[in-house]
Amino acid sequence: MKRFLAIALTLVMVFALASCAGDSNVNSPNAPADSAQPSTPAASTSPSAPAANSPSNPPAESPSAPPAAPDGFELALITDVGTIDDKSFNQGAWEGLKRFADESGKTIKYYQPIDEGTNYYLDAIKLAVDAGAVIIVTPGFLFEEPIFIAQDLYPNVNFVLLDGSPHNADYSQFKTGPNTVGVTYAEEESGFLAGYAAVKDGYRNLGFMGGMAVPAVVRFGYGFVVGAEYAAVELGLNVGDITLRYHYTDVFWPTPEAQTMAASWYSSGAEVIFACGGGMGNSVMAAAEAAGQKVIGVDIDQADESPTIITSAMKELAISVYDTVKEYYEGKWRGGQDIIFTAANEGVGLPMKTSRFNTFSTADYNAIYAKLAANSVPIFKDVSDGVTAKDIPVVISKVTVVG
Fold this sequence. Notes:
The chain folds into two domains: 47-51 and 62-185, Response regulator (Rossmann fold); 187-314 and 349-402, Rossmann fold, CATH 3.40.50. Helix 4 (144-153) links the parallel strand 4 (135-139) and strand 5. It is globular and about 60 Å long. It starts with a helix and ends with a strand. The protein contains ten helices and 14 strands. The protein is α/β, with parallel strands linked by helices. A seven-stranded parallel sheet has the order 1-3-2-4-5-6-12, sandwiched between helices. The protein has a seven-stranded mixed sheet with strand order 13-11-10-9-7-8-14, sandwiched between helices. It is 35% helix and 17% strand. It has helices spanning 2-21, 89-104, 118-130, 144-153, 187-200, 215-235, 256-267, 281-291, 317-329, 362-373, and strands at residues 47-48, 75-78, 108-111, 135-139, 158-162, 180-185, 205-210, 242-248, 272-276, 294-299, 309-315, 337-341, 348-349, 399-402.
């Protein structure tokens, strides 16, 4: 009887396996050629929201190289805050990446984290990696810690970190891995050019309204002060001929408070305000339009944002992203390095073609730019968070700073 039951059970299993094999074409990798296959998508500009917040500790897995999937996105950009059409930092970075994608035929996608914080950024990075990213561009210093972690988690993915250098949470370790390039800018030189041009163009009552007092914004600010001073000395102005209001709003987005303060500055005599705070600049532009006064933009050419913009203190974000990504595909990847874009390599500047100066000419601009490129203009670079114009370690004799 036991032998009979064993034989019967064996026959049942054989028939069951044969039945399953008859349906195997549905999901088999050897399915017929007419089975549905994913198509290669066109370049995408729509954001992908990452999944819910990850656990307090980042994932420990270390994925292998991204698969060359036909539906993958090879180039990715992840924003820290805001979108790619912020008319400022994110947009400049996206334009450079998209230009390369358009020229090379690479697929491209951007991701907007659902909130701020290292774990949210790591979630978005994982989404990009899972979608096939080979290069991920992350604009903003808020990515310094996430990239410090991600460059080890994903050794076969390459990262371009803008405005920072990878480090751990307490700043006790700094490491730019072989799959990471850190890109920073000489904001003090760009701010210098803006302050210099404003005074040379005849403005005597200036303002600097920064966002958060992070190093990049601080460098823009004291560069602006030093540029105004340099021009005042060249023009032989008297002590106190230049007045400069100086303030940090602690935000990078439009607020009624910022607009009210800008309006107060204009009503008190300010002629032009350097709005150095991303979307916060929209508040200054609104106040300038109401007062019939002027604004200096930041990061990218903001001339189209408002007729009040006379020029913009630019970082050549699009150029630096385009060039860095292109170097990777040309076998010239500078992984493990922190690259600084300055006047010497045309990484900062003013957009003279769209600037609305009264008398400051392209020849004037080229002359002072050449001095910056030759490093013959003394501008201090070492600052800490929270520094004001009064703390700038340089003698300011012509400009009266009102903090």
